[in-house]
Amino acid sequence: FSKLSDRMFVFQLDRKVWSEIHYPREHLPDIYVPRERAFHTCNIIGNYLVVFGGYSHRHNKEEICYDNQMYLYNLGCHVWVSHEVLGASDKDNGYPKQQGVFAHAADVRNGNTLLLVGGYHGNVNADLLAYTLPPMLAPGDGDYVEPEQLCPKHKSFTECSANPECGWCSADEICYGRTIGSNCTTNLQTS
Fold first, then answer.
1. I need a labelling partner for 73 at 20 to 30 A (CA). Which of 14, 44, 86, 135 fits?
2. Which PANTHER family does this UniProt record tie to the protein (predicted)?
3. pLDDT > 90? residue 135
4. H-type helices in 61-142, by residue range?
């Protein structure tokens, strides 16, 4: 059986070197940061590393065996982000099963849709599920856009401020990219 881990590594192609990514868990709400796990999936969608599911049971600490959550790691800012960044659409489109899954497979379709297939959650399943990330996080296949240019697609302060690359302008109630927010006549609100 695999050992549970919450360590993250990045491979730098130009230098051909592995480095560990350290993130301060104690300063972040646990709901944004995945606990140690095994048999989960990770995929890159837009500017995010998307972690889904996995075996995460820790006796007397974490009594769920199969996680049913999706976690988002912003690759540009190197931080875990809140689900608020997904906007209102996420409230109705969460994982449709009550029990999570591990040892499943995942792939990305059209640059913005996470496909989940199979896995185990007490029994082997043959589910095929799809979750399409909103256009402010992943515009779709072949549509490369600088992450900050997607900020105006956020429609509220809450979802805008959950994106570490964006800031909310209260003067005109528009979400701007942090470095391209010069159109705002007030300070950009980022949290």
1. 14
2. KELCH REPEAT DOMAIN, MULTIPLE EPIDERMAL GROWTH FACTOR-LIKE DOMAINS PROTEIN 8
3. no
4. 89-92
